[in-house]
Fold these 3 entries.
Entry 1:
Amino acid sequence: MKTLVLFYSLTGNTEKIANGIAAKLNSDIEEIFDKKNRNGFFGHLVAGKDAVLRKFTEIEEVKKDLSQYDLVVVGTPVWAWGMTPAIRTYLSKNKFNKLAFFCTQGGSGGERTFRGMEEMTKQPVAVLSLIEKEIKNNHYQGKVKEFCDKLKQ
Ligand SMILES: Cc1cc2nc3c(=O)[nH]c(=O)nc-3n(C[C@H](O)[C@H](O)[C@H](O)COP(=O)(O)O)c2cc1C
């Protein structure tokens, strides 16, 4: 099964997990870039507001051709209990075969994020939600393995 991991990450947590998943699945991987500057206090403030308002954003062109993949694994940080504008934009513009989702969060909003992503696309074959603390402490490998094992079935 040909798999692509696609993710957005502002501060590196989701990127770390995306790399771990891609390595375990031996899959391709691509980062989605938001053209809007989300850095710093003001950037975060607007990011939170954009997420609450379910706004779209301008993203850099994604190079990988989705039609070449059987499974796409989409990862996002949780912003204001939902997906990021970059992922919302990407999901809204594409059609998928099989999908799986993962998210990283400070502590709450994962389930709501997955519900929102599913509403825009289709039911995922598996989901993985990780908390920032377990990522920083490197206590996430078991959950990533379990998620990847499900995806390999
Ligand atoms: C604008 C903004 C909003 C956030 N909102 C939430 C939230 O609603 N719930 C939560 O648990 N964490 C929230 N966080 C924390 C991030 O989800 C968490 O730090 C995540 O791991 C960041 O991923 P990244 O390093 O890949 O960008 C928020 C962070 C930012 C910058």
Entry 2:
Amino acid sequence: MTEKKPLLGFIGQGFIGKNYSDDFEQRGYTVIRYSLEEPYQANKEHIRECDIVFIAVPAPTVPTGKKRGDGHPEVHFDGSTIREVIGLAREGAIVVIKSTIEPGTTELLQAHYADKLILHSPEFLLETTAAQDAKHPERNIIGIPKDTKEYREAAERVIALLPKAPYTLICDARTAELIKYANNAFLFIKIVFANIFYELAKENGIDWEVLREAIGSDPRIGPSHLDLHLKDDPPGVMRRRGAGRSCFIKDFAELSELYAKTFPEDKHAIMVLRGFEYKNSELLRAADRYINLLEGVYGPDTGKK
Ligand SMILES: NC(=O)c1ccc[n+]([C@@H]2O[C@H](COP(=O)([O-])OP(=O)(O)OC[C@H]3O[C@@H](n4cnc5c(N)ncnc54)[C@H](O)[C@@H]3O)[C@@H](O)[C@H]2O)c1
């Protein structure tokens, strides 16, 4: 006998929600899609019918309007949309948060919504290849807020639903949450590093392209995030100045804030993280790229000389 397929819900129909929902449907699942766009708005009440509800709505990091002791704009994670939409899932439903969330968020939400099982599954797809990445994820990670048989079974159930991935992990929710921030922070640093070395190379008459290829051919480093060209750059022009897009700026700011709150006395580590933030903001300002995103995270003056 084959087990009846669970009815799936997907709240949020952006890059993650649309592509995962399409893939689930192509594999024979029924998905109720709810988001702010038409035609999905009308499905709000139907989320209550779903056995497993995935969530991929925005979870921004925004300025508090205050400055920290070192003059850096204070930011905070805003999980209010996630908190609001979880209430749409019925009692006993499994809720899987795909949005990137500050470490500790799953535990807090689970305490607030004790009638549902809340899990976190960090997402690694790229906007440029989202449909393909959703079909072939590189990692399926499920974070559980409590290490019990019930949560482990729920996590196994979710992993069985997701497209197969070469790497699978069930871990505590805080680890799952931090994996995504650590990943993005590492790549953010790599982009800023590439920009700094590009300037140094240029000033010293060194061909950055040769340097880049040689550095990236070290398997411990790899070629990704060192290329400063954008697709439509004319030859010799490199406009990828700074780490931008919707995730890099907010996730690095969040991680840096978390570190500063956790270790307020560790001045040098805070200085290192802030240094990357300031340099990145400066690069983005100079290239006039992602200014709205930058100001959405830090407020109006960041990166201005
Ligand atoms: N885009 C990426 O490459 C990517 C990769 C990994 C993780 N993430 C994270 O995943 C999350 C979502 O990203 P995305 O790119 O899919 O978002 P998106 O901006 O493309 O789409 C967001 C969706 O959420 C819906 N939404 C917003 N508020 C809502 C509400 N109150 N009720 C119902 N629906 C609502 C919108 O209508 C939209 O369909 C973010 O936390 C992001 O950081 C994104």
Entry 3:
Amino acid sequence: MKRLYFSLSIISAYLLMTGCDRPNETNNKDSINEHLIVATLYHQQAAEMKALTYQAYNIARCRLDEKLKGTDNPAGLAIVLDIDETVLDNSPYEAKTILENISYPEGWDEWMNLANADALPGAVDFLNYANQHGVGIFYITNRKEKYRKQTMKNLLEKGFPQAVNEHLLLRTDESSKEKRRNLVSENHEIFLLLGDNLSDFDMIFDKKNSGEREATVKKLRDEFGKKFIILPNTMYGDWLGAIYDYDHSLDNQQKLENYKQNLRGF
Ligand SMILES: [Mg+2]
């Protein structure tokens, strides 16, 4: 009996490996988000993730202190921040997509309506420090306008300062944040930007392929840790979209094949 079971296991494994057993809908669905397990665990379990976030906000504070020394008009200064994976932690949503085999935007409404994402380590302290010194704080996010009320509630309840309508710029017509940054620049000098996605900093990064993104980062390398403060996001972002040429019509299986094709072995 044991031998029969062993033989059947070998045959099943072989069929799966060779692809002869074409996965049906259920098999596909069972594994659609498996690739996100480690990425999401990193956000939720790795103390290194928390350390990186503290590190980002510690650097931001150094830059702020330097800037404050050289100005007598802090109200004319602005710090611009993204929200998701920059000040708020949405990893519970990513975990849910794995545990329940769903894909964005399924379940996103429910997560937004809870308005209970945790603040990322260091973010609240840093922004309250900036607020106490009279610096303008602007949240530029690609959350849709319909989530304004929930987003504001979430920010306020977690202790974020300046979470008021004029300082919360959500997505209306386009995902590029350039126009919204320009709006802030009309009355402020943006001296610091924080984000987890390169497009949070400059339109030069918008919709670029992986090679162009890498080359532009190299070109602007002196800005990181200076004007641009980046936070880690292993779960999603343009870095991942660039791998499959932002073709959002691809299903998860097709995306996964793209990811594998882009691995660099030796
Ligand atoms: Mg983000």
